[in-house]
Amino acid sequence: MRPRPEPLLVSGALAALSLVAVGEAAAQAPAPPAPRVASIPLDPPAVELGDEFVEEEFGFLFRLPVGMALVPPAELDAWRKETLVPEDQLPMIDGKRARVGGWLFRHPDGGSVFVLMNEPPVSIDSPTQLRQALAAENQAKGRPYEDHGKLYEFKARGARAGFLVTRDFGLEAGKPMQFRQHAAYLRGPDRSFLIRYTAPIEDFDRLGDAFQASMVTFAIERGTRAPVVSTSTPPKAPALGSARSLGNLALLVLIVVGGLLWWRRSSGGAPEGA
Fold first, then answer.
1. Are strands 145-155 and 40-41 parallel, antiparallel or unpaired?
2. Phi, psi of 179, deg, nearest 5
3. pTM
4. Cα 255 to Cα 47, 62, 184, 260, distances in angstroms
5. 101 in helix, strand or coil?
6. What is the CB-side half-sphere exposure of residue 117 using CA atoms within 13 A?
7. What burial class does residue 189 get, using C-beta atoms within 10 Å of its C-beta: 0-12 exposed, 13-18 middle, 19+ buried?
8. CA-based end-to-end distance of the chain
9. For tag attachment on the chain, is the N or C end more exposed, with fewer CB atoms within 10 Å?
């Protein structure tokens, strides 16, 4: 039996945090770029995968680990309302309101996969930046955490570059870390995706390899431009005060704090989307 935290009303607070971050960014000098840490190509494990999930509206698809399935529609709708920032609280970017989307998959024997979509895309340019975003998320939640394993780059369908990192975390400060999580990031020209597989540490390996193999099958159908895995000269960032720069920062906040949920009391299993 694993007790869950009390429910947290986070949707409004999450949007407010995004707006606060945008305001603070305009007043502060840009931080120096994070040092790059060596990453290695991901050699996807040779494991059997299950059904292919196709999301036509947002133009993505991928093969799921065997036994993993999207939760029922009523539960998915309720989970989205509890998890995602309301549409009318998302920032306006270049005259258009940003969009977020979420999909929750669960395995009957435990473990979950959470897909978070951001449109326009959030820019994460290395596995190091992805790891730092997850660290910021844990700090915002006051959770104990520890980086685990190596930093990976991989090629998904269409030669699209992706990043994958792993972490351990607990639900409460001062308590043992209970969960392990793979987090993968992929970006297309119109939207980006953060995909997480979470399970109790002792049960993580049962589907951990399958999740890695699954990410290699991930396809973003609209557009073909992939993020650059490594370059000799980093692209010039937009001016700090520009609408796109500030909007992108707001969306980054949504990613790093986006796992905050309205936890339901239940026993066993991993936190969904943590």
1. parallel
2. -125, 150
3. 0.73
4. 29, 20, 12, 10
5. strand
6. 19
7. middle
8. 18
9. N
